Amino acid sequence: MSLTFAEIPDSDQAPAGAARTAALSQLAAPRTRRTVLRAAALGAMTLGLAALDRSGVARPRAAWAETGTFGLQGWDRNDCRDGYPNGYVEGPDTNGIYRDTYPACLGGTWRGSTFCEAGWHKYGTWQEAGGIRADHVPISTACGTTTTKNAWKWTTPDGVTYRCSDGYTTYWGGGHTGQTYLTICRART
């Protein structure tokens, strides 16, 4: 038969003639059975939480870099402070579906969703309108630091987060003779 906390008697409720124990005589706090059981319960809870904390369940996970197509790495954060500690001035898209929304990406001759495939900069040869061939190659750059990454995230004032993925696009045909431009893929995350 087990006892509840309320059923455990205090030391001053001991049966008449029972001898006091000297087990906790060195402690300055009152020594009662309830105090000992509370200490045991607190110790068990501490060990349990320590085990959870060690496994990472009890604390928020650290951010990690995204890995995109072809093993490209992206920045961890969505405010671009790891790539541009002082921030940057976003440029409006030059093409694609986000052309009339808040700007999110920086740099490049052209920026927009038309340079994206599966949320990252296109790779390979694509046929464009007018018989123009476009060769797309994603690149990794330093983005303001010494760590090379292909993409960074940016959250616009309306709360939408986009990935801006860097690449080069070379155009052939239709008056183009192999001009290469820095292009930025803008994809919603």
Features:
2 domains; alpha+beta; six-stranded mixed sheet; 189 residues
Give the helices and strands, then pairings.
Elements lengths: L32 H23 L54 E3 L3 E2 L2 E2 L2 E4 L5 E6 L12 E5 L5 E13 L2 E13 L1
Parallel strand pairs: 1-8
Antiparallel strand pairs: 2-3, 4-5, 5-7, 6-7, 7-8
What is the gist of this entry?
Helix content is 12%, strand content 25%. It has one helix at residues 33-55; strands at 110-112, 116-117, 120-121, 124-127, 133-138, 151-155, 161-173, 176-188.
Indicate how many domains the architecture comprises.
Answer: 2
Tell me how many strands there are: 8
H/I helix tally: 1
Overall, the morphology is rod-shaped
Order of helices and strands: HEEEEEEEE
Low-confidence runs of at least 5 consecutive residues: 55-64
Structural class from helices and strands?
A: alpha+beta
Radius of gyration: 32 Å
Mean pLDDT: 79
Instruction: Report, as a whole number of angstroms, the end-to-end distance.
Output: 58 Å
**Percent of residues in beta strands:** 25-35%
| Residues in helix, % | 10-25%
Largest sheet: 6 strands, mixed
Question: What does this 3D model show about the protein?
Answer:
It is a single chain. With 189 residues, the protein is of the alpha+beta class. It has two domains: 32 residues; 120 residues, no CATH class. It contains one helix and eight strands, in the order H-E-E-E-E-E-E-E-E. Strands 1, 4, 5, 6, 7 and 8 form a six-stranded mixed β-sheet that branches. A two-stranded antiparallel sheet has the order 2-3. The protein is rod-shaped. The two termini are 58 Å apart. 21% of the residues are buried.
